[in-house]
Amino acid sequence: MKNQFPPASDWNQRKNGRSPRFGWILVFLLLGPIASPAHDASDPTHAHDPASPTNQVTTRFEADWRVMTANGWPDHEPGQFPRKGNPNTLAPQNYTFRIPSKPAFSSSHTRSEGWFFGVALNGVPFEPGTAETWNNDRSSGWRYEANTGFLDLGLDQHNAHVQPTGAYHYHATPVGLVQKLGGDSKNMLQVGWAADGFPIYTATGYSDPKDSRSPLRKMKSSYRLRHGERQVTAAGPAGKYDGRFTEDFEFVKGAGDLDEYNGRFGVTPEYPQGIYHYYLTDEFPFISRQWKGTPDASFSKGRPSGGPGGPGGNMQGAGGPPPSPLLQALDLNSDGIIDSDEIRKAPMSLKKLDKNGDGRLTSDEFRPPRLDEPVPTRKIKPFENVPANLKGKQTFAVTSSEFQNGGALPAEFTGDGAGVSPPLTWKEGPPGTKSYALIMHHLDPEGKTKYYWTLFNIPAQVTHLDRNNTSIGKPGLNSIQNTLGYAPPHSKGPGTKLYVLTIYALSDFQKLEKSGAPIAGDELLASMKNITLASSDLNVTYTR
User: Fold this and answer.
1) Distance CA 445, CA 409 (A)
2) CA distance linking residue 400 with residue 393, whole number of Å
3) 195 close to 299: Cβ distance less than 8 angstroms
4) Are the C-beta atoms of residues 170 and 200 closer than 8 Å to each other?
5) Are residues 417 and 488 in contact, defined by beta-carbon separation less than 8 angstroms?
6) What is the Cα–Cα distance from 535 to 437, expressed in whole angstroms?
7) What pTM was estimated for this model as a whole?
8) Residue 523 is inside which H or E element, if any?
9) pLDDT band for position 54 (cuts 50, 70, 90)
């Protein structure tokens, strides 16, 4: 059994014999000033200073870029800060956002975690997500929502609040800005730009996206609350899907007016010939959580504003050494600041770096890899419980149109992108094949098998799965989210990880009813023991 991590009071003493005070002083020196928690339950203490700064925003054009510089101070009267649910003080910022003036669709659609989704016309950023997670565990995958009424994050009357850095930002429709611009009751109203260059409008749009003379009406999101109860696992909350978590919602194509990016293509007052554009809806997701195009790196919260990004930027930051695992572990909300709440949780955060569970952190556990240091590779071992008759029967090939065998998995199929399953194609199995099964697995550093995708009872006449397959085969449970279907890799820590997709040709259909209960990867493998004719692997890597 691994040692329990010691409390903050004696962790440093056990690590190196120094006093605990020295250890925390070292953390302060490494990390700089400590900020207040992003959200707290304190009451407002004062109103804004009468001599508050004024809104400052300018826009200029450089080649194919619209460059906006702003101090992030709204052009309307913000709510009082600090306030209940948000103890932070609003302060001017120094933003430089590079917005593509000729936006284009991207094949690698990216989620907006850790980035501003876009910026309002008044220079205030849009940030749809929150830093608050279930049980304060970022790895759980369950993130609280700001606008569904279950968590008091101190939003003011403009659907905005303040980060520890003093940055004011919108989580939904910027009410004050809409009023300043004259409202949207008679016209479509543009209120900002997304990081990929496409325009952002309020919820009001034309009934017919091709006709600017059609009546105006409120656009409806196509996201809906999931039905039923959350699956009870140690890694997530129980209870009914009620909207308190982002993961309580699912996209249902055709359920509303908009696509999964909360947008659509159509005419607008500014673009009478038509353009793709986003909407700020009155219901989830309020602000889109992913981009249709390629965002510029100047919208990343993990890098200085205005830094080089170039077209498309760099989702991992623009060059330079990788961030320290120590800083990554402590900075729970990825805002570049270690606040007092994160300091309080430091013992638990640091525990995640203690790979051997000895209560100590050695340099190989907390230092980042050098840029010239080769990435360690480890050959994937066979599943420990794979029946003997499954080995050595690679008699047909499986491929993907999106990556080569041994190549990198595109962001679209990971947790940093749209998170959809990749397309696969394979040659017909040997004579007697009646069905196929699919398993995607990865071995963690401890050698434990993790299942990312299980699918079975694929008919023998099928030798292809489309991108984001939901209609072919019967899905089993993945062990990442403990849900049915594909779990996109969302690798933690630096280094390249290897994943293996295996197609099995089977001599029968798998009868895994088990009273209708979902089937896990181990059960699926065991069921193949006497019916496997052949198998084929496709290896893919992923680096964060």
Assistant:
1) 20
2) 20
3) yes
4) no
5) yes
6) 9
7) 0.53
8) helix 521-527
9) very high
